[in-house]
Write a structure and sequence with these properties.
By secondary structure, the protein is an alpha/beta fold. About 35% of the residues lie in helices and about 20% in strands. It contains nine helices and ten strands. The strands form four sheets. It has a three-stranded parallel β-sheet with strand order 4-1-5, sandwiched between helices. α6 runs antiparallel to α7. The longest helix has 17 residues.
Length: about 260
């Protein structure tokens, strides 16, 4: 968030500007790796109009815990999400929670309040508490019709996320072999034809290196929501960077109008 020279910083700014100047949504619905529902089979939706930021990380300098990001929620949009999920027989629960750092840390860059302010509501919804990829793909399918209502669906995770190995690299950020291999396998699966995409993506979790790339799968599951919501739209990797046990890959489903 403070490393303005990191390549991911500039890429997030590009995406944010594309959303505000070309996509121009009426609202954003976001799923983050840092919110899994507390009850099996249920999705929680933040229905509050006004929410705080959640500083759900530990051991960082004090300045991280004073960060701000101006935003607003929407009870109306939350109701639309819950209706779509209930129509798909998915249990829902409205809560008042706030934005976790899986949302606000990247949004603060993408939607810089002074350079590219976001003027539409943000409604965050949880993942399931499970690691079931099919369940999360189905979640995406259930909310797909929100896109036709000019509601942008954003998913926030990591293509490769092994912080344990990052901490043992002693400053070296060359990609580990599994990071490169899994990152490329994810690209192949996400960019596959829509009729094969769910199968190819779920097969990723069976790879021998899956638990190296993701010791737990919560950072991978958001892209299953995005892929499910995409319907027949093709997935495309916009950019990637592999560093140690991480990959910063960014994806889009569907084309952006000229």
């Amino acid at each position: 968030m403070y490393d303005v020279d990191h390549p991911a910083y500039g890429k997030l700014k590009e995406i944010g500007e594309e959303i505000t100047t070309r996509v121009k949504p009426d609202a954003l619905v976001v799923f983050s790796a840092h919110w899994q529902a507390e009850r099996e089979g249920q999705i929680e939706i933040d229905s509050a109009e006004t929410t705080d930021l959640i500083y759900d990380f530990y051991g960082f300098p004090k300045k991280y815990y004073t960060e701000t990001f101006p935003h607003k929620g929407s009870e109306e949009i939350a109701s639309k999400i819950m209706e779509a999920l209930r129509n798909a027989d998915i249990d829902t629960k409205p809560v008042q929670r706030g934005l976790d750092h899986g949302v606000w840390a990247s949004f603060k860059i993408a939607f810089d309040p002074t350079q590219n302010p976001l003027k539409v509501p943000i409604v965050q919804a949880s993942l399931f508490m499970s690691e079931d990829p099919h369940q999360h793909y189905r979640l995406g399918k259930a909310i797909s019709n929100l896109r036709s209502q000019n509601i942008q669906i954003i998913v926030s995770g990591m293509a490769v996320h092994n912080l344990r190995d990052m901490r043992t690299l002693s400053g070296s950020l060359g990609p580990l072999s599994y990071a490169t291999a899994f990152d490329e396998a994810l690209k192949l699966a996400v960019e596959s034809p829509p009729e094969a995409r769910e199968r190819m993506m779920t097969d990723l979790l069976k790879r021998p290196d899956a638990r190296q790339a993701h010791p737990t799968f919560e950072h991978l599951l958001p892209i299953f929501v995005g892929a499910g919501a995409a319907g027949r739209d093709l997935g495309m990797r916009l950019w990637t960077l592999q560093e140690g046990g991480l990959s910063w890959a960014q994806y889009r489903f569907g084309a952006v109008a000229a």
